[in-house]
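Write out the 3D structure for:
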Amino acid sequence: MRTRRLPFAALVVFAALSSAAAQPATSPLGPVSPTTGLVLRDDVVRALIQESSGDRIHDNVQRISLLARDTQGGYGEAAVWMKAAAETAGLQDVHLEAMKDGPQWRATHGELWVAGPHRYRVTSYADLPMSLPSGSGSFEGTGLELVDVGTGMKDADYEGRDLKGKVILTRGPPGFAVRKAVAERGAVGVVSSYSTPPWNAPHRMDGDFPDQVGWTRVAKELVPPGQRAPFVFMVSDRQGRELRAQLQAGPVKMDVSVATETFEGHYNIVSGVIPGTRAGEEVVLTAHLDHYKPGADDNASGAATLLEMVRTYTTLIRRGVLPPPTRTLRVLWLPEFDGTRGWFSRHADDPVRRVANYNFDMLGASLTRTHSRFMATYTPDWNASFVNAVSESTVDFMNRFNGVAYPPRKDFRIGSVTGSQDPLDIHMERYSRGSDHQLFNDHGIPGVAFSTWPDDGYHTSGDRAENVDPTQLHRAAFAGLASVTVAAWAEGSEALELARLVAVHGVRRLAEDEFNARRDLASAPAAQLPGAYRLSRAAVRAGYRREREALRSCIPLGAPAAPVQVMAKALEATEAQALGRLEADGKARGASLREPALAEVERRARAFVPRRVKGQELASFDELASRVGPENQARVAAVQAVMTAATTALRERGEDELRFFQLPDAVASYADGRRSVADIREAAYAEYGHAFPEEALLDLFGLLEQGGIMTRAR
């Protein structure tokens, strides 16, 4: 066949294109964009949006949610699938990292029937695995009497009643009935229609969703040693009311058939990397893979979104749109909390500097269908980092270009083919615990969480794939991609541009800190003015300290130290001005700002400098409180009362429920061997806007010290 020669001009164009294609991809970072407000180049922003897919994520949410990942078998199947999918997506060194062996539970059969001439099946493990909680024991019985104990949360619900050999029906959490009716009075099992966890109660009340079935476990601590584990069945509110209606008409008999077993085994962590060019540095991405079936938003959505982020990165790197990252991306799918604890037990001392953690948990809930909102969390003030400014700039960009159903800039629209047209409303939230990012923060690694909260289906059978929105999934993926790209690729002059972004966003955060401090001072009664003034000054100072540390966090990324230090130094003058305005506000009240002499409790608070014991960073105050002896019960009760009062005050002020999760541990995380208990009180006030009594904090840290979680620096 005769060949056709290209014209000379075409050859020149072809050579130019070939030369351009052969050139290595340039860094995705640059100066702050006047269009997006990000330190990512606009073309990179478009590439991250256009390559990632919420529809693809949703397909994988459906796959994962078919597995009951709250048992070793179901989780193991999900882990094997994720390993293969991650390898296909281009992740390298993908392997299953075994956790410690321990007791595992599985069920092979579980059915609950109403006996009698119109015998019918109420529920079964085969139809809904979460109807038979993990830890339930084997049992066979027919014609068992059903007894209603109402909420079952008071001693009076059980007193004077013969419950031996009977089945208990309760509207409350089944743990109360297991302890009071089974362990103490000989009942054989429990049927519960409870479905609303306490931290979700303000958002989703019992009865709002009558066909949801709640998720729980049978804690072995509820059953005395040597006593067999009872069976527990979870039913919907509607089914519970039907059973109570039958009880009003006469006795109800139950037939129960449950076959379970325990064995030794372990869960696996799925781990892999996108290798970086700089040795010994990592950005860690996490999503918990475990949970009940279906568990679509919690957390098939996070696991699938992380997988799509991997595919997006490897695709763009392969195409030359992105160069390989500067820092290795370490990607982990693991069991929530336990998996992260296990991973740290092996890897905390690795010769690796971990720059940041990005955690993806409950990302995909339809904001309209589940009455939710999309949020990104700050790190705690004591763990300041550039990651907060990056998250803020990402949130601002996403809201600006996606805050209406049909945005004018289609190239910056983050949506999906099969998803909703919901306007986006993503928020930055002050630090809260509640997922794996808290453990990274406890280890000193700045941890950010992306999530949708609240969720009408949270921890119930209502958490299904149809309530997960592909558009929201795409937005979650982009939020992660935009943030992680900065942390993983920034170096040298780009890290200096990042420091400028931190300085710009710090202005807004510091203005809010000053606003809150001056507002709190203005609202303080005259008699309390000296103490309120001290705490308000502490809050302003804490804000400036946080922003200086956030600026300096850019230096290890490669930002030149001198200009960053100049930016940090400039904050000293504005801090003095802010404190001067605060003092003027106080003096204008016409009352003395001079504090009285230190009380004995205050002197003790200044003398006690707690420090966390290495290896105990992740311990929980609640676990400690359950183990203390009678001599310390009063101190535990005092701490719990103060934390309950703080929760009530913050809730009345409109704070999100997640802010109160593990509040004693959040306060305790400020212990670093340098801050006294008095300093921690001021720092906690700056973080939460609530003044914790010194005596209660002394009790908190004293109990943690006795439990081996804390020691004293002095």
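The first strand starts at residue 92 and ends at 98.
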